[in-house]
Amino acid sequence: MSAHPTGRSAADEALLALASSGQVPQEYLGGSGVAPNTEASEHVLQTWRTADCVCFDVGCTITRADGLDLLAEFMGVKDEVFALTQQAKDGTMNLSETLEEVLRIINCTPDDVRRFVQQHPPEKRLTKGIVNLIKTLQKRGVAVYMISGGFREDIMPIAKYLGVPRENVFANRMNWQWDDETGQPTRLSGFDESQPTAFNMGKIRAISKIREDHPYNTVVMIGDGATDMEAVQSSQGADLFIGYGGVVERPAVAEAAEWFVYDHDELTRALKCSKVAMIGIGPFACAAIHLVVQNIEADDQFDPCLKVWVQDPLDEFEGRSLIDIVNTEHHHPKYLPGVHLGDKVIASSDLEWVASDADVLIFCPPHQHMQSITRRLMGKVKREAVAISLVKGMRVGRDGPQLVSQMIRKNLGIDCSVLMGGNVASEIAKRELSEAVVGANSRETGQLFRKLFQTPYFNVDIVQDVAGAEMCGTLKNIVALAVGIVDGLGCGCNAKAVIMRQGLTEMRKLSKTLYPNVRNETFFESCGLGDMITTCLGGRHRATAEAWTRAWKSGAPKTWSQLEVELLSGQKLQGVGTSNEVQEVLRARGWEASYPLFTTVNRIIKNYIPPTSIFTFRDGVILPLPDEDDEELIPTRRTPGQHSRVGSIVSGSAIPAS
Ligand SMILES: NC(=O)C1=CN([C@@H]2O[C@H](COP(=O)(O)OP(=O)(O)OC[C@H]3O[C@@H](n4cnc5c(N)ncnc54)[C@H](O)[C@@H]3O)[C@@H](O)[C@H]2O)C=CC1
Ligand SMILES: O=C(CO)COP(=O)(O)O
Fold first, then answer.
1. Sheet holding 386-389, edge to edge
2. Pick from 291, 467, 464: nearest CA to 362
3. Which CATH number is 561's domain given?
4. Which position among 89, 451, 476, 606 bears the catalytic label?
5. Where is each Glycerol-3-phosphate dehydrogenase NAD-dependent N-terminal domain found (predicted)?
6. Residues 460 and 392 in one domain
């Protein structure tokens, strides 16, 4: 089959058009001898895996091409009915005429139907693997429908056995003559012509009705006939048609289908194997792995193996390779010793090997390394993969600020969500109650990530505000530094409340100014208020800023890098970098005075003004500072009001450079 954006050749497209007219020449429908597409493309697989509604033609759920044939056999009129139904399936006879004619030939009574169902119970008629496939779909929350040109009287027992709700069955309905005296149905008198399935293009009609009544995002039709294949022909129809040849193989259908299967187990297997990869193995990556493995081991949708990228192949713990320890003992001895990362976690320093076959990519390295990581992965990840960033931080390039999720989307060309919240890694690892939000562009992707991270003690809500959630996670690190400074100066809760409230105000203002679609409510979610509280009470930014301020107070100041090494055992302090990055934006746009807390914190951490200036941030008439590199400086201890290194404000007055 030649390449085509939809996966169908031009000839297939033509065939579909002809089939829909109901007037396809028989020899054309016989197919041209081209082998069916039994290997699904990445696009098709992705559609199948993200479907929230799957419609089965009844013909692929039971071992006879159509229940009507079996009923006809039961009534002793098999050959006449078979000839007629084939014509309808192949599109050479008008469907409603066929049905009328078939019923006239079958001419059954309600008793005949009852006896027929007793003699042919559903469990004896089902195709191999259909029970498991429907169960797997329903377990994933996918709505399952059955659509048939046959009759409810025959189909309902099968639907019931398969667990498909009555209202999800679209089929024709027999009309009966009624006995006035007994009130009971007696003989057939045609069929109900108001059902969508009573006409040509009936499958499309049924699917449009389903779509009208339910907001499904992705609908898949599975069937074996030309009328099933029609379902993808209208914008109101299905998004994907999967051809099934386990009972009857119609060559034209087999050739035109974007994916043609002979066994339902193949569809079940394809649902199960979303591969997940983690990029990074810091403390939070380890805590996230601990959550994710609980879900991928329990949910058929995911491959239970999780590949993890370790940045440094030579990283050691007590003389042993870290990669070996993770792969054999399944824990991280430095960051979360003893916390089980899962037996099927495979650590490697080969970034491409870890990421290239993943369907779901989780990013969790320190933010300053994300640009080089995503550049290394350019063109090397699956086009249909989806990503989620757990990274709190941004990059400021020549074009202005870039969030990590934007960087991933731009460099890798894939959708990217974010997971943000008040989430200290060590507490999650201890299974203490926590919550987070997934910021996603669609509800469907949000639900995928909720499935991946949610556990009974880690609640995940979905917000369709990626930028808002990510800005919260990024900017709160600056506020946490401010709170640490207040702690270092020995102040109590009132002062910290002032800083946190002002911090939240500036976070919201900057987020909405840079990204106007950011929602106010996002700031009251776990990513906003929640993370602000967590990080200002328990995070490393607060603790390091407190130590830095105490050192300044003691007259033996230390640099941030020094403290990062001394206090954080290999972890990174990203808030200092974030403060510089944010300040670059504020400065370039002339906004410094509108963000007095952010600006004051940046002046303090760069030693332009003393830590005590945190109390007077409101007086912020901010002097422009000369351009210079952000090299770290060992400050000399100064008291408020004394000279600062370059120039700054304390209580509104500019202090000349020393
Ligand atoms: N630690 C926590 O409790 C939480 C962290 N986060 C976010 O998760 C992200 C990762 O933070 P952590 O897990 O704490 O790790 P971290 O920020 O402490 O960094 C340690 C990790 O950085 C890696 N690393 C060092 N140099 C690197 C390089 N050149 N390239 C790539 N990786 C390198 C190391 O291998 C190590 O695994 C950050 O954006 C952080 O804000 C989010 C929520 C909670
Ligand atoms: O983001 C965090 C908690 O949500 C972690 O905060 P720290 O980086 O300050 O430890």
1. 345-348, 302-309, 274-279, 360-363, 386-389, 415-420, 434-439, 458-463
2. 291
3. 1.10.1040.10
4. 476
5. 275-444
6. yes
* 262 and 341, same domain (yes or no): no
111: containing domain? 10-270
Query: Of 218, 240, 270, which residue constitutes the final position of a domain?
Result: 270
Q: Is the CB of 147 under 6 A from ligand 1?
A: no
Instruction: Specify the ligand 2 atom closest to the Cα of 542.
Output: 9
Task: Of 547, 591, 639, give the one whose Cα is nearest residue 602.
Answer: 591
Q: How far is the CA of 304 from the centre of ligand 2 (A)?
A: 28
Using a 6 Å CB cutoff, which residues line ligand 2? 392, 422-424, 480, 531, 534-535, 539-541
Question: In angstroms, what is the span from residue 451 Cα to ligand 1's centroid?
Answer: 23
What is the interface pTM, i.e. ipTM, of the complex?
Answer: 0.98
Residue 315 falls inside a structural domain: yes
- Domain count along the chain: 3
Which atom of ligand 1 is nearest to 477's Cα? 41
Do 251 and 203 share a structural domain?
yes
Question: What is the spatial distance between Cα 408 and Cα 150, in angstroms, rounded to a whole number?
Answer: 49
CA of 536 to the centre of ligand 2 (A): 8
Residue 643 lies in a domain: yes
Does residue 392's CB lie within 6 angstroms of at least one atom of ligand 1?
A: yes
Kindly state whether residue 350 falls inside one of the protein's structural domains.
yes
Last residue within a domain, chosen from 240, 270, 300: 270
Does a structural domain hold residue 2? no
Whether 358 and 502 map to the same domain: the answer is: no
Cβ(359)–Cβ(275) below 8 Å: yes
For the chain, what is the largest distance between any 2 Cα atoms, rounded to a whole number of angstroms? 110
State the DSSP code for 581. H
Strands (E), 525-567: none
Do 186 and 303 share a domain, yes or no?
Answer: no
Which of 537, 571, 579 has most ligand 1 atoms within 8 Å of its beta carbon, as the pocket-test mutant? Answer: 571
566 and 449 within one domain = no
- The pLDDT tens digits of the residues spanning 164-219 come to 999 999 998 888 888 888 888 888 888 887 777 766 778 888 999 999 999 999 99
Highest mean pLDDT among 47-51, 188-192, 337-341: 337-341
Q: Give, for ligand 1, the residue of 289, 373, 390 to mutate: max count of ligand atoms closer than 8 Å to Cβ.
A: 390
**Amino acid at site 447:** Q
Angle, helix 466-488 to helix 404-412, in steps of 10 degrees: 140
Confirm or reject: Cβ of 574 under 6 Å from ligand 1: yes
* 366 in contact with ligand 1, CB cutoff 6 A: yes
Spatial CA neighbour of 16 closest among 151, 4, 56, 267: 4
| Residues 284 and 226 placed together within one structural domain of the fold | no
Confidence of residue 4 (pLDDT cuts 50, 70, 90): very low
Please report, for the domain that includes residue 287, its CATH number.
Answer: 3.40.50.720
Asked whether residue 443 falls in the same domain as residue 511, the answer is no
**Amino acid, res. 232:** V
pLDDT in tens, 95-148: 777 878 888 888 888 888 889 888 888 888 999 999 999 998 998 789 999 998
Distance of alpha carbon 495 from alpha carbon 482, whole angstroms = 10
Q: Is 476 a catalytic residue?
A: yes
Angle between helices 78-89 and 67-74 (to 10 degrees): 160
